């Protein structure tokens, strides 16, 4: 891959992997007296803008938390409208394909609508060789569910006699996560004022830096993304060392 120069400046070394917990859509709509689904629609616009901008900033991977394993608890019509938005987005995804962005999905997709699953596979297949940036969408994703899934795969190997439990390593658990070859998170951005992970990439965020802002996701602008990146650049990461 050619050396990237960040639009924030030649000396800026952006985080390789940024995670975004897209939060605050519902409150954005409520403030305007609108149904929650209007907030999700507006949030989807922010997602498109920020993705293009992240590429200009020079991040290699951007992962968005779009729907959690816990979000099924929401009213049926809200869930339906979120799923409709995913499908609509995947229909329009060729815009991103033109931009050389590789798209990947993480989460348990087996319970999603078949039409959506098909589009997800298609999108991954069409974009697999693109290398300007990788966009990861976490749909029906839960960090605990992901670890559980990895552990089950290893347990099957133990049962078949192919693996001795005492030989299980962190790398093995990691290789069986949905993220496989995706690197750990460097920075997690959460808008909307909440300061929690809500089951987002709990394994991959072990040494991530966190950036919180009160701005609601639909109001989040490129300049807010830049602030998070520049803040990250000031941090001193030690990874347990000195
Ligand atoms: C995030 O916005 C979108 C999803 C979880 C799908 P919310 O819908 O959680 O918005 P708030 O937190 O209610 O404002
Ligand atoms: C996290 O937001 C999930 C996504 C952004 C997809 P939530 O709104 O579901 O999280 P909580 O319920 O406030 O923790
Ligand atoms: Mg929320």
UniProtKB/TrEMBL annotation:
UniProt GO molecular function: ditrans,polycis-polyprenyl diphosphate synthase [(2E,6E)-farnesyl diphosphate specific] activity; magnesium ion binding
Binding-site list for Mg(2+): 23, 209
CDD domains to which the protein is assigned, alphabetical: Cis_IPPS
InterPro entries, alphabetized: UPP_synth-like, UPP_synth-like_CS, UPP_synth-like_sf
Keywords: Magnesium, Metal-binding, Transferase
Keyword field contains Ribonucleoprotein: no
PANTHER family assigned to the protein according to its UniProt record, in alphabetical order: DEHYDRODOLICHYL DIPHOSPHATE SYNTHASE 2, DEHYDRODOLICHYL DIPHOSPHATE SYNTHASE FAMILY MEMBER
Subunit structure: Homodimer.
HAMAP family according to UniProt: ISPT
Function field: Catalyzes the condensation of isopentenyl diphosphate (IPP) with allylic pyrophosphates generating different type of terpenoids.
Name this polypeptide is given: Isoprenyl transferase
Gene: uppS
């Amino acid at each position: 891959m050619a050396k990237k120069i960040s639009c924030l400046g030649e000396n800026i070394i952006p985080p390789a992997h940024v995670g975004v917990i897209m939060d605050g859509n519902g409150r954005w709509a409520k403030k305007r007296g609108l149904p929650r689904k209007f907030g999700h629609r507006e949030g989807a616009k922010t997602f498109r803008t920020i993705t293009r901008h992240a590429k200009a900033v020079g991040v290699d991977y951007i992962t968005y938390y779009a729907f959690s394993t816990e979000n099924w608890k929401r009213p049926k019509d809200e869930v339906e409208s979120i799923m409709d938005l995913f499908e609509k987005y995947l229909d329009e995804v060729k815009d991103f394909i033109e931009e050389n962005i590789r798209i990947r999905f993480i989460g348990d997709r087996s319970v999603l609508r078949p039409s959506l699953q098909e589009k997800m596979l298609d999108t991954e297949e069409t974009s697999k060789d693109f290398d300007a940036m990788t966009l990861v969408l976490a749909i029906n994703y839960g960090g605990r569910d992901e670890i559980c899934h990895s552990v089950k795969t290893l347990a099957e190997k133990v049962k078949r006699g192919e693996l001795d439990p005492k030989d299980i390593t962190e790398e093995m658990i990691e290789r069986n996560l949905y993220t496989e070859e995706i690197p750990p998170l460097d920075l997690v951005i959460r808008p909307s004022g909440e300061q929690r992970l809500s089951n987002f990439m709990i394994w991959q965020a072990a040494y991530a830096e966190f950036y919180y802002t009160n701005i609601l996701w639909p109001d989040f602008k490129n300049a807010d993304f830049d602030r998070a990146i520049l803040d990250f650049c000031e941090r001193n990461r030690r990874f347990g060392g000195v």
